[in-house]
């Protein structure tokens, strides 16, 4: 199992000039990898911490490259135990980078998970939920764009907002009056293989507040889609957490420590 440890200076490094050691110092700012090991084994490492581990292990690799190019510690690195150590490190990095989208994972703690941070094809169920969510999001995007274009082409006068009760459209009273004047016949659009129809008679507006010039606008389809999207997001969140603990279990079983 790859383990970061002290490297003794042997005789093959004695002819190394000072500039090489200055170059090595640039790559020596590595955080406490052992602390990460403990977190992995205890399954307390947060998703956002994997990118920190990757950055540190990348520094280790850069350090090894400088050592190799400078012909420093050549005999030490060629010893089988240490050569295997370097290979195990590369295998370990390749494994978690194949599973995790590190940039996406860097956004979350487990308590704040809002989206999938696993790579595609890691889990079919996660991929399926993600596809459904994108379908719903495309519906909302198409609906707001269609209604905005009806008021004035190329605008975003109708926006989508999310509140405690789900998603709703928001638009100023003036723009909504313009929309009602122009929106006389139902409009239809296709998302994936599903056809949706928006009927102007189904739009229901409510004032945001007594003093606000904005309106919240709903219809039956939007309300239904909003509720279903909320359920999908919760399913995704729970599935991501479940698969994350499974990933940590597999990682510990295969690699033990980093």
Description:
The radius of gyration is 28 Å and the shape is elongated. With 258 residues, the chain is α+β, with helices and mostly antiparallel strands. It is 55% helix and 12% strand. The protein has 9 helices and 6 strands, in the order αααααααββαββββα. A hairpin with a 6-residue loop joins strand 5 and strand 6.
Strand and helix order: HHHHHHHEEHEEEEH
What is the CA–CA distance across the termini? 7 Å
Q: Determine the structural class based on helices, strands and strand pairing.
A: alpha+beta
Question: What can be said about the biggest beta sheet?
Answer: 4 strands, antiparallel
Gross morphology: elongated
Cα Rg = 28 Å
Name the beta content range: 5-15%
Main sheet strand line-up: 1-2-6-5
Keywords:
258 residues; disordered N terminus; 9 helices; four-stranded antiparallel sheet; two-stranded antiparallel sheet; 6 strands; single chain; 55% helix; alpha+beta
Short description:
With 258 residues, the protein is of the alpha+beta class.
Draw up the topology in text.
Layout: H1 18-25, H2 33-42, H3 50-69, H4 74-78, H5 80-99, H6 102-105, H7 124-151, E1 159-163, E2 166-172, H8 173-182, E3 187-191, E4 194-198, E5 204-207, E6 214-218, H9 220-255
Antiparallel strand pairs: 1-2, 2-6, 3-4, 5-6
Helix pairs in contact: 7-8, 7-9
